[in-house]
Amino acid sequence: MKIEDYIRTLPHSIIMGEDVTLRDETLREIFRFASLGANDTFYHLGCGNAKGITIALQEFGVKKAVGIDNNDKKISSAKKSLEEKGLYNGSFRCEDILQSDIGDASVILFWFSDEHIIDKMISKFSQLKNGCKIITIWGPLTGCLPDKVDFPYILNVVPFKNARDLREQTLAVFGTECIDFAVAWEFAERYSKAIGSKEAGNDRFLTILQSLVIWINAKNLGIACGDEIPQPIKNYMSILKTFFNIEVEHLLKQNVA
To answer: Residue 75 is part of which domain span?
Structure first.
């Protein structure tokens, strides 16, 4: 089956990231990356549980932290957790982020894959005060040049810098003149480690898929190193097809040797 068909077999909650919980250390890495501190009003959009808000308050001393999620059960549990810890400068809202008031934010963690939501939120983010930081994971805000990257963590700062095209944006994220297999694998592995998993085998599988996606996208954009498909890429394409019945070759816009 084509990789798009395989993805459609996965539970919607996994595809949209609803059942993916960031590890505590990943949250700390993100907050250090964004230089989160005492003068910040922090928002976690799609917060899930209370972990991000708790760490932002207890360990990074933000003056205010707000978690927003549309899952009422998760929000109820998060509120209870915050009350038990006596963290009264933190709060949770069960809301649609497209409708939420985030006007006082100085740092926002925003990890969504739905393009419809991303496009609408970019317009909303653009109206925030200058200097507001938007943290994303894996990809920058659509059409924007990142202000800071420690992949897979990416920072865009209001007002956003527009990229001329996807090619310029991709090169800015990877910080290189061309993308070879080693770069694709390194960045895919960083992502796998960041989102974490209790099953190392799952992380390995994710790394393989993501490294292929990174390299194929680079090839299609004309920023892969060399004209031929690297042997490791060929090997992993073959492994996916032979052992998992997942085909990715069709994603290449043109045939290469």
So the answer is: 12-163
List, for residues 111-158, the tens digit of each pLDDT value. Answer: 888 889 999 999 999 999 999 999 999 889 999 999 999 999 999 999
Residue 170 lies in a domain: no
Closest residue by Cα to residue 62 from 89, 25, 85: 89
> Are 152 and 184 part of one and the same domain?
no
pLDDT, position 202: 67
Question: Which pair of tokens denotes residue 138?
Answer: 């894996």
The reply to whether 1 falls in a domain is no
At position 257, the amino acid (one-letter code) is A
pLDDT digits (tens, 9 = 90+) for 6-39: 666 654 444 444 556 788 999 999 999 999 999 9
Q: Same domain, yes or no, for 97 and 143?
A: yes
CA atoms within 13 A on the CB side of 57: 21
User: How confident is the model over 216-226, as pLDDT tens digits?
Assistant: 999 999 999 99
